[in-house]
Design brief:
With 283 residues, the chain is α/β, with parallel strands linked by helices. The protein has a single domain (3-281), classed as Alpha/Beta hydrolase fold, catalytic domain (Rossmann fold). It has helices at residues 3-6, 10-19, 72-75, 77-85, 104-120, 122-125, 139-148, 187-190, 198-207, 234-246, 263-281; strands spanning 28-38, 41-49, 57-62, 90-95, 132-137, 157-161, 221-226, 251-256. Strands 1-2-4-3-5-6-7-8 form an eight-stranded mixed beta sheet, with helices on both faces. Helix 5 (104-120) crosses helix 7.
């Protein structure tokens, strides 16, 4: 999740788009739909509708390293949109406030608001409120899981690719992820007070960990993770998988052999997410 993954590497864009280039293009796009206003800023989403909608909607968290901006809609999002719209899914690209201006707790609230907006405007855009999926890559996967675990979440299925899931047990028990030398750059993004005690930091890390939100009401969940991920440990996916299993949630962990925090995991991850939503939202 270092900053370079936030906007996706150029290599990911170059590989992903040709990979999906033969898929049918979207019939229409509604740009810059405002889902929230706060502090003088407007937060928007794009709605991409296929030629033959199946009334299911996949909400895509446009996020990497908890950074999000509209340029990402032109870099790596088009390939992902084509994968889903070709299968009849409407895609909603959610752009959230970027860290460090917005802290991760604020970002979580923003994307939860976005999903509630989609649900409440379902009839306007032709969505079936019983066919709502959410997905994302890296921090986008983290946000997807945070949404899915919300008490009032209207999500019916989730697919998270290479997501952080337990920020308080990062790679090993009782190791907060910002204690990692590389990931300490995220201290400002988390909104951690410089004077905060270790217990305060641990409490915040747990608050922002999807694993703490797992209950029997969690929606069907797919996690895709590479076994050679040097950024987000595979252990994060395994811990979440175990928690979902204990709660009796419909879930699956798909491990990509040799996959890192890169296109080797992301590309098959998108296609596996597509299959998951076909199975869980089109029944």
């Amino acid at each position: 999740m270092p900053r370079y993954t936030a906007r996706m590497s150029p290599r990911v864009s170059v590989i992903l788009l040709p990979f999906l280039a033969t898929l049918a293009s979207a019939q229409s796009r509604i740009q810059d739909v405002v889902y929230m206003k706060s502090g003088g800023a407007a937060f928007t989403m794009d709605i991409v509708k296929p030629a033959k909608p199946n009334r299911a909607v996949v909400i895509f968290m446009v996020s990497g390293g908890w950074v999000s901006d509209h340029s990402m809609l032109k870099s790596f999002a088009p390939g992902i949109e084509k994968a889903f719209t070709d299968a009849g899914f409407t895609v909603v690209d959610v752009v959230h406030g970027a860290q460090p201006r917005y802290k991760v707790p604020e970002i979580v609230d923003q994307v939860r608001t976005a999903v509630r907006f989609v649900h409440s405007h379902a009839s306007e855009y032709g969505f079936d409120t019983n066919r709502v999926g959410v997905t994302g890559i890296s921090s986008g996967g983290h946000l997807s899981l945070m949404i899915a675990g919300s008490a009032d979440s209207p999500v019916n299925a989730v697919a998270a690719i290479a997501p952080p899931t337990d920020l308080a047990n990062w790679g090993k028990p009782s190791f907060v992820f910002v204690d990692d030398a590389v990931l300490s750059t995220f201290i400002p993004a988390m909104g951690i007070d410089p004077k905060a005690t270790k217990s305060d930091i641990e409490a915040l890390a747990k608050q922002l960990s999807p694993i703490t939100l797992v209950t029997a009401k969690f929606p069907p969940t797919l996690i895709i993770h590479g076994d050679d991920d040097k950024i987000v440990p595979l252990q994060q996916a395994q811990l979440m998988d175990q928690a979902l299993g204990k709660a009796g949630v419909d879930h699956k962990l798909a491990i990509v052999k040799g996959g890192g925090h890169d296109e080797k995991t992301f590309i098959p991850g998108v296609m596996q997410a597509l299959d998951w939503f076909r199975l869980k939202l089109l029944k």
